[in-house]
Amino acid sequence: MVAQPCSPEVSDPYAGDAVFELHRGGKIEVTSSVPVRDAADLSKAYTPGVARVCTAIAENPALVRRYTWKSNVVAVVTDGTAVLGLGDIGPAASLPVMEGKALLFKEFGGVDSVPIALDCTDVDEFVETVVRLAPTFGGINLEDISAPRCFEIERRLKERLDIPVFHDDQHGTAVVVLAALRNALRVTDKSISDIRVVISGAGAAGVACARILLQAGVGDLAVVDSKGVLHEDRADLNPVKLSLARDTNTGGLSGRLVDALDGADVFLGVSGGTVPEEAIARMAPGSMIFALANPNPEVHPDIAHRHAAVVATGRSDFPNQINNVLAFPGIFRGAFDANASRITEGMKLAAAEALAGLISADDLRPDYIIPSPFDPRVAPAVAGAVAAAAETDGVARA
């Protein structure tokens, strides 16, 4: 029987609400993959037969991928400190989002996953907890962890574990942004090496987007936080922002976001807030606006279309939605198929190329630069490209 979230004695103010009813009892469950119909089945699935499998794994640990679920299961781990659009709501309140992530892993990538909400915010405790849980899983998907802690947590877990560790708020966003930008450049007939990009937001998504765009060949890129353009002379930057300042802003910009947008080709918003229309009106001809804050984009699409050649948002009710579900199921599917020890920069770039390549020249247009999450080609294309890149990068294992 499905567990009920409220006892019969307690009135449920949300009863009858379609969204709450969908969530009643949770959105995922564990099901058996083998039958247990009789004593013979039971003796193989559990005692005494299971002892033979345990012994074999103890003698040869590599067999754990073949004879357990480890080869196809991800831990979706959060502490609930940076839930999209909600902020620091804590581990319990974050669980519906983690369940949703697990649901999407299965639906779009055929990857099983377990949501894990940790009641700790200390970096050391978080890392040690995940390391201790890791033998159960084939990969770790970090989710909704506040910056700059998320950078340190991911770095340390990647150093200590020999399975893929992926912070989707960073890298999933970055992969889809790069894919969309590549096709936006095709629409506007611009070269990635010639454009100037301004990113509003220096948190998890902003940093990762900046890094992948630099690797993809963007030569002129400036990142702006709440206090202005990042540059080396600012004394208020944390180590992550200072490192980014050293690798960006080749034009030596300073000042606020509105100043940086003057003559820019691309605006990428991953921070929220509102950008005045007069600022985007001063962008270069044929500009591209990716205003990804959700539910309220930094620039409303109706306003953006007055000045930009291509517009993308994070919302599903406008064209060109930048949605992480286009990336993470296929990335983990490909990493698992290759038995990759980690997810490399080459694998992320390959994922972006595969996504962009799904839009043919005949279909490409300003309001169609990125495929739909429901396009059945997405996850297989991303998975194949990621698995191939894992081989190329030397992280695939037999």
Structure description:
The chain is an alpha/beta fold. The protein has 2 domains: 41-163, Rossmann fold; 168-398, NAD(P)-binding Rossmann-like Domain (Rossmann fold), CATH 3.40.50. Helices cover 41% and strands 12% of the residues. The chain has 16 helices and 10 strands. It has helices at 18-23, 39-45, 49-59, 64-67, 90-109, 123-133, 149-160, 168-188, 204-216, 239-247, 257-260, 277-280, 301-304, 328-337, 345-357, 378-392, and strands at 73-78, 112-117, 139-142, 165-167, 196-200, 220-225, 228-229, 266-269, 287-291, 308-313. The protein has a 6-stranded mixed sheet, with helices on one face. Helix 6 (123-133) runs parallel beside helix 7 (149-160).
Offer a few descriptive terms.
398 residues, alpha/beta, Rossmann fold, 2 domains, six-stranded mixed beta sheet, 16 helices, NADP-dependent malic enzyme
Q: Can you describe this structure in just a few lines?
A:
Keywords: Metal-binding, Oxidoreductase. The chain is an alpha/beta fold.
Question: What are the SSEs and their pairings?
Answer:
Blueprint: H1 18-23, H2 39-45, H3 49-59, H4 64-67, E1 73-78, H5 90-109, E2 112-117, H6 123-133, E3 139-142, H7 149-160, E4 165-167, H8 168-188, E5 196-200, H9 204-216, E6 220-225, E7 228-229, H10 239-247, H11 257-260, E8 266-269, H12 277-280, E9 287-291, H13 301-304, E10 308-313, H14 328-337, H15 345-357, H16 378-392
Parallel strand pairs: 1-2, 1-3, 3-4, 5-6, 5-8, 8-9, 9-10
Antiparallel strand pairs: 6-7
Protein name: NADP-dependent malic enzyme
Active site: 46 (proton donor), 101 (proton acceptor)
Binding site for a divalent metal cation: 143-144, 169
